[in-house]
Design a protein that fits this description.
This protein has 18 helices and no strands. By secondary structure, the protein is an all-alpha fold. The longest helix has about 35 residues.
Length: about 400
């Protein structure tokens, strides 16, 4: 009953926020932006230590048991399977809908809107940026992949330490910090209806302000269509294959999916995802607190489809022939690029821009995409969190 009341309260807040955003009053939009920014910052604040502490405590509890390896292998298998499926869905829709080329003058005009100093970043540099050279910097920069790497190293080191009083003190201290963190998360979630009103009003104001699809309708149809198919068809089929009811699972994880839709950050949504998985879906905390931080970092279904479709479209506009070999190569590139992408707003956009610059494709198109990327990013993030939830549910069933 508490879960149902919470969900109805969130939906009511969503409707109220949409109504406020449709009024078109500048002072309401300013307040909504202010409150939405506060909530996004607070969830990011809690998400970063949540990832680190959850992985450390789980590894310290499981140690090097066989069960730990099984959970990790299942998580990785389901993550790669769903991400490859998303990329394949994107390819099929791209070939079927066949977006056309844009006029040269429009591409040139879009170049002015492309963020500067981002197209020069190579993927090797992106990977090197994951390896931390300072134990504090990843937390200051919010580098989720570096934090996950540190957490794995610390957790694994704890499993190798002999049972002693120093080890017990360290583990109990980390577990105490984790419980403190979850107390803060529960308090923040209790006030979340106010944040949802602000997020909803902010989104409605943006859409009303002219976030239209205009001349790139077919491209947008491929991107959004791929996300919809992945969300409502492919991922439910994965759940059904493991004997899990997809409708019930989606209902249980709806708070996290809605939160992802508004924050556009799977990392910021992680506290809500973990709470929904444990309290609404009934997943074992030992599973959820290990699987979900990993999925938040590497399970990027929507990002893989965006990288693939956008890169193909950019190369097509640049006169590059899209052979089957090229398409197949980019399926793999998009999947493994998405795995290395950070779960932050516009992270996928910047990564795609960097990859496209390396192919010599006209990156001016990225400037044309930029005005509508807010909507795309929302849908992709919601799909990513739904995919995280599915991977968590399937791993919990298997293990």
């Amino acid at each position: 009953m508490n879960n149902k009341r919470q969900l109805f309260l969130w939906i009511g807040a969503l409707i109220a926020g949409a109504a406020l955003g449709m009024l078109g009053l500048q002072w309401i939009n300013a307040i909504a932006d202010f409150v939405a920014t506060i909530y996004t910052r607070l969830f990011r604040l809690l998400a970063v230590p949540t990832i680190a502490l959850a992985v450390i405590t789980t590894l310290a509890s499981f140690g090097t048991q066989k069960e730990t390896g099984k959970i990790f292998r299942r998580t990785l298998f389901y993550t790669l399977s769903t991400t490859f499926a998303a990329a394949i869905v994107g390819v099929v829709l791209y070939l079927y809908i066949a977006p056309g080329n844009l006029p040269e003058e429009l591409i040139s005009k879009g170049t002015t809107d492309v963020p500067q100093n981002l197209g020069t970043l190579s993927y090797s540099e992106h990977i090197l940026g994951v390896v931390p050279d300072n134990i504090i910097r990843p937390f200051l920069e919010g580098n989720v992949l570096s934090i996950l790497l540190l957490a794995f190293a610390i957790g694994y080191a704890l499993t190798k330490m002999p049972d002693s009083e120093p080890k017990a003190v360290v583990v109990k201290g980390i577990q105490g910090l984790q419980e403190l963190l979850f107390t803060l998360i529960r308090g923040l979630i209790w006030t979340l209806p106010l944040g949802i009103v602000a997020f909803s009003a902010q989104l409605t104001a943006q859409v009303s302000g002219g976030m239209a699809f205009d001349s790139i309708g077919k491209y947008v149809a491929v991107i959004i269509g791929g996300n919809v198919v992945q969300f409502f068809v492919v991922l439910p089929l994965f759940l059904l294959s493991r004997g899990i009811n997809p409708l019930k699972t989606l209902s249980q994880m709806m708070p996290a999916v809605l939160m992802a839709l508004f924050t556009k950050s799977s990392a910021a949504t992680l506290p809500v995802t973990m709470q929904s998985a444990e309290q609404r879906m009934g997943v074992s905390p030992r599973i959820s607190r290990f699987v979900l931080p990993i999925c938040t970092t590497i399970n990027m279904n929507g990002c893989a489809a965006f990288i693939l479709v956008t890169s193909l479209w950019l190369m097509q506009n640049g006169g590059i022939e899209l052979t089957w070999q090229t398409i197949l190569l980019w399926v793999f590139l998009s999947v493994f690029s998405a795995v290395g992408n950070a779960g932050v707003p516009m992270g996928c956009y910047f990564l795609t821009l960097s990859l496209a610059a390396g192919t010599g494709a006209p990156i001016g198109i990225m400037g044309i995409i930029l005005p509508i990327y807010t909507i795309i990013d929302m849908i992709e993030t919601a799909e990513n969190v739904w995919s995280d939830s599915c991977v968590c549910a399937m791993t919990n069933r298997d293990c």
